[in-house]
Specification:
The protein is built from 19 helices and 4 strands. The protein has helices at about 15-20, 25, 30-45, 55-70, 85-95, 110-145, 165-190, 210-215, 225-230, 235-260, 285-310, 325-350, 355-360, 365-375, 380-400, 405-415, 420-425, 425-430, 440-459, and strands spanning about 150-155, 160-165, 265-270, 350. The radius of gyration is 31 Å and the shape is elongated. Helix 6 packs antiparallel against helix 7 and helix 6 packs parallel to helix 12 (about 325-350).
């Protein structure tokens, strides 16, 4: 277990200490970013005259061959190396000899790992953004297809007022749209290159940090070498943003689980996204929705863990910071997996439109509109509220909806009611009369859909 840093030491590290210290088991996943960063670094070193053109070509050719061999499986990343940086450098020296030993010129593992983590995180943010966009596309289609799918809107899990499924899905569209904007904000804020910061105090080599940053697609170099190697707040931001994504998915999952129940029967989940019971043949369980809801706590845990890890670390780099990777890797994998599966489940889900409208009617979601009818006919609102309360009690006692009452029954409670009450409290009227921007009326929803289409097209 000879380390690349072993010159200062007179005996090998204890095996248990070595294993405890090593990160190869998890940081091997960013071998591509490590090689990409090294290629940019040696390109800059040659430009600055620190390496010869021949040395640069040798090193780049060697690094590219390592990447190719890892990708096709002919070169295995094994745990005899302490970390991915050691693996790449040792493999390079084995392949090209003395020139490979110059790879690390003007660089520390501290700024190297800071770069790798930023490159990896940047790549993953783009993938997360793509998955969020797919979710939004599915939601937008559901909105377009369900402008007249009437359903109850809820407060306190009680049926409150009638809305449409398009309007309900539109609420989640806004949530996931904000999630995308958070990802873009993080990408922009983190997009400065730490390479060239050294261990913490830069280097005496005449590096061109602006050039390296440009090669790697950054907006520029970081402006403080201490901060560069000890900054992990962009990961905390990402974990926070992913926790919010998962919170939105969990809320949505909770509704799918409720809607899938025998009591609601609003949705039927496709067989590909549900399971049966080992003992009860009638069951169709919403396992994906339940797992998404459950895995939300896993991402929250990663955020709390990294906040706790970072809270007491003095400047600059400390080994505690190695703990960032497993938390972040697991949270990214979890969030991506949940987004992909939930989107697939939503895309294939069938909505019971008749059942949803019946539920809205029998939940007295049109009671407010009955009160508004009375107000529009000169009855003070407080009196109208009391009259409709009596109507609801009457219907509960009879086991009927407001729509099922005869005109005589209406008039028995208040003589103000006339034949036009039926139109006033129909689900269609209750929804269509609400046409301020953001409301569920068809005209308002069509305006919003046009805006959302422009938003997705602009992306």
């Amino acid at each position: 277990m000879a380390q690349l840093w072993g010159g200062r030491f007179t005996k090998e590290t204890d095996k248990l200490v070595y294993d405890f210290n090593a990160s190869i088991s998890f940081d091997k996943r960013f071998y591509e970013q490590d090689i990409r960063g090294s290629i940019a670094h040696v390109t800059m070193l040659a430009k600055q005259g620190i390496l010869t053109g021949e040395e640069k070509e040798q090193i780049i050719k060697g690094l590219e061959s390592i990447r190719t061999d890892v990708e096709n499986g002919t070169l295995k990343i094994t745990e005899e190396y302490e970390d991915i940086h050691s693996f790449v450098e040792a493999s390079l020296i084995d392949r090209i000899g003395e020139a490979g030993k110059k790879l690390h010129t003007g660089r520390s593992r501290n700024d190297q790992v800071a770069l790798d983590m930023k490159l990896y995180t940047r790549d993953e943010i783009l993938e997360l953004d793509g998955l969020l966009k797919e979710m939004l596309e599915v939601l937008l289609k559901l909105m377009k297809d369900n402008l007249e799918t009437y359903m109850p809107g809820f407060t306190h899990l009680q049926k409150a007022q009638p809305i449409t499924l398009a309007h309900h899905m539109g609420a989640y569209f806004e949530m996931f749209k904000r999630d995308r904007s958070r990802m873009k904000d993080i990408y922009k804020r983190m997009n400065l290159c730490p390479l060239g910061s050294g261990a913490l105090a830069g280097t005496t080599y005449p590096l061109d940090r602006e050039y390296t940053a440009e090669l790697l697609g950054f907006d520029g170099p970081t402006l403080n070498s201490i901060d560069s190697v000890s900054d992990r707040d962009y990961l905390i931001e990402l974990l926070s943003a992913m926790s919010t994504v998962m919170m939105h998915l969990s809320r949505f999952s909770e509704e799918v689980i409720i809607w899938n129940s025998n009591e609601y029967r609003f949705v039927e989940i496709d067989d590909a996204y549900s399971t049966g019971s080992s003992i009860m043949p009638q069951k169709k369980n919403p396992d994906i929705a339940e797992l998404v809801r459950g895995k939300t706590g896993r991402v929250y845990g990663a955020l709390t863990a990294l906040l706790t890890t970072m809270k007491g670390i003095p400047l600059a780099y400390n080994k505690d910071m190695q703990e960032d990777k497993e938390f972040v890797f697991d949270a990214i994998d979890t969030t991506k997996g949940c987004l992909a599966l939930f989107t697939g489940m939503l895309k294939t889900m069938k909505f019971n439109q008749v059942r949803m409208e019946e539920s809205a009617k029998h939940g007295f979601t049109n009671a407010t509109d009955a009160a508004d009818y009375l107000v529009n006919h000169g009855v003070p609102f407080r009196d109208a509220h009391g009259i409709v309360g009596q109507l609801v009690l009457y219907c509960i006692d009879k086991g009927i909806a407001l729509d099922d009452m005869s005109l005589e029954e209406f008039k028995a409670v208040s003589p103000v009611f006339e034949e036009d009450i039926y139109d006033a409290i129909s689900m269609k009227t209750c929804v269509e009369m609400r046409n301020t921007i953001g409301a569920p009326g068809r005209a308002a929803m069509e305006q919003v859909i046009q805006e959302e289409e422009k938003y997705l097209a602009a992306e």
